[in-house]
Request: fold
Amino acid sequence: MSSPDDQLNRLFRAASGHPGEEIAAPAFGLETRVLAAWRSSRSASASVWDTAVLVRGLALAGLIMALSILPALNEKSVNSDTENLQLADSSVQTDWSP
Amino acid sequence: MDRIEMTAEEAAACVDRAQKGDEKAVLDLFHYMYPHVAKLVYANRPAREGLEDLIQQSCIKIVTNLHKYSGRAPFLHWVSRVTVNTCLNQMRREKARPEVRLADLSEDEAGVIEALAVSPSAVDTSDQVAASELVEKLLASLRPADRLLMRLMYLEGRNVEEIAALTGWSRAVVKVRAFRTRGLLRKRYQLLMKETP
Reply:
């Protein structure tokens, strides 16, 4: 009697020789359903792209706004020092005036 | 529309057109890959899943993920991987039958076991259907992933590299799993041999 392994091998060989089921033509409407799924996935990916563009646009606009505010902030800080000096100067002048 | 034949280069060009939004290219790809997908689903389908549902699921998964196909491997390899993984995901819900007993077999199937034990030659071609059904019953006693592995390895004759590429498992996992599952099948088969008069 041959070993169980050998018997299993011969069994698998016999089973793999069996032609199996005939592959049928695509089911009615399958082509349409697949195409519809592809179209909807494309439109979904297009809307995702739109969102990405919008987010990038908003980020860029924010950056430009921040950059445009910076000089104004600098100017304000310089101005406040100048104002303090002018105030001190005027008060000194007032004290010494007859 | 009938089946479409393409070379690997033609398929790659067709995928490129489909990725750019050409609807005709998607239809051509569908008819090109359909027989391949159907064959894989027929061979690896879960017991209770409808064939058409699984073929549709696989085809839709492929066309909606076309943008993820990089073109590094031939298109049909990628199609096979997506299809096998779709089958595997469905099979995970199934439970294995605990064992196969002689009482579960038909006369022809029991006859195949006797013939294998008595004669060292190959199984007669007239017994191929019974042999195929016997193998299906033995495989049904395995866990779904192991069943898929045994089918790919022994019925479709794929090697370790091919199975690793199809399933996404590492080569070591494929080897260890195949060794362990083969041992389990041997035990189940020996149990049937003992019961055979």
Observations:
- Chain A is about 85% helix and 0% strand.
